Amino acid sequence: MGSSQSKLPEPAVGEKLAERLHAMAVKESRNELEKGYVYLEGEQRPLSESYTLFESPSAYNFTAEQWEKELMEDPKNRLALSALSSNEPQGILTQRSTTIKDTQNFNIKIPLEGAPITNQRSSGRCWLFAATNVFRVAIMRKHNLKDFQLSQAYLFYWDKLEKANYFLEQILHTATDDLEGRLVQTLLASPVGDGGQWDMFANLVEKYGLVPQTLYPDSFSAMNSSAMGQLITTKLREDALELRRLAAKSVNARSSLGSIKDKMLREVHLILTLMLGPPPNPNKEFTWEYYDKNDKFQSCKTTPLKFASELSSSDSIRANSGTDINELFSLVNDPRNKYNELLSVSRLGNVVGLRAVRYVNVDMETIKIACVAMLRSGFPIFFGSDVGKFSNSASGIMDTGLVDYELGFNIRLGLSKAQRLMTGESQMTHAMVLTAVHVVDGKPVRWRVQNSWGESAGTEGWFVMSDRWMDEFVYQAIVDPRFVSKEIRSILKKEPKMLPLWDPMGALA
């Protein structure tokens, strides 16, 4: 999320090359596509065919030479070689018609979207930015603000410390499991990653509250988190091996090793405090001074926990058109699993003893109906998606028709959403916020997206998402219980189906 984009080709050059590729596009027969196909040993083949395994590299090279010869006989492929080897492929294959129709015009838009556009910089804190961008709208209404940011770094600090504790607890729980088994290796893979989920955000707000960004701004390591993350990860992996070694000698590992685990956690606390700075105490009063949108000076004295809890007060709920922001919950679309079912992920969380990550699995139609209803009521929506697919960060467009791979490579990508999840092709990678939708004949056409990549991305920080892209690459939306049926709400009371820790629905945005 912090990497920079390659420079795109000049628009005129890209358009001319794309036009020529379109003009020269040919349909090859299936026989030609299958010519030279090699069946591997043990692979089923038609009875009428015979096969010979490649016995040497020279035989393989000979076949590759034949493939190349046939490839270059087609003038379309020679043009494609010239275009694709000298330019950024997505820029060459971008469809101009798609960029024209994906405009920032919407007929349903919340009146207060929240400002300014935020920037997570070179960190994986998108979920914290998306969540605080939703929460800030409620605060801006309550305090009559023109612009405002909550401190993402405050929650980032406590999340890292809580994740370290959660990880060490999991290591004690799995002390007798095989070190090289899938579960322990998955735990060791990312003990304190930057990413997270809505329920994890809710845990942090419940335990630590919220503070304005002016009281705890980003440090260098909040904006550039990799070095800090690598240091803590290495430390925790060492600690994990030591806890497992000691647990093997202990009758009751969890009780006897508690003090040792606390010492390990204190060392993580030291790293966090020196690299992020000491955070405000959740229970100590702070003074927040600000100007409201009428340029009138205001001063507020409260604690982080009280500041957060006020969002569930009757005044705040009334100001937010009846929405209690602390009651929002997660809908997901996972077509591998049964709809209208509660899902959870084993051993996924951040705060020991608080809520687990839970999703109500529904079809996309249910998600979109709830999202449109929330936007009509004037409230923004946290959502999780696979942002890298068929998207362009420079133009801020997310559309399945954005890039025509068939034009350039004569291949058609046809995996379903379920197949992408099953093969590791897709999962939630990024969290953003919906603030508007364009509806035609009762159906959504495109959605307005508030990102956290700064004003240089998209249209001054704003993206547009086609409804078809939403179907294929959006997995999660956080909604108000009022905007789903009683049947959907009742699913929250059921026992969840537990998915393994390595399941793609355990991905942290």
Query: Total strand count, please?
Result: 14
| Biggest sheet layout | 12 strands, mixed
Structure class? alpha+beta
Number of helices: 21
Stretches where pLDDT is under 50 for at least 5 consecutive residues are: 1-11, 26-36
Quote the average pLDDT. 90
Task: Work out the strand percent.
Answer: 5-15%
Q: Report the radius of gyration as a whole number of Å.
A: 26 Å
Spatial shape = globular
Distance between the termini: 10 Å
Helix content: 40-55%
Describe the protein's topology:
Elements: H1 11-23, H2 30-34, H3 57-73, H4 75-84, H5 89-93, H6 96-101, E1 108-109, H7 126-143, H8 152-173, H9 182-189, H10 198-208, H11 220-223, H12 226-247, H13 253-256, H14 258-276, E2 286-291, E3 297-302, H15 304-309, H16 314-319, E4 329-332, E5 341-345, E6 358-361, H17 364-376, E7 381-385, E8 391-392, E9 397-398, H18 405-409, H19 417-423, E10 430-440, E11 443-450, E12 462-466, H20 467-473, E13 474-479, H21 486-490, E14 497-499
Parallel strand pairs: 4-6, 5-14, 9-12
Antiparallel strand pairs: 1-10, 2-3, 4-13, 5-6, 7-10, 7-13, 8-9, 10-11, 11-12
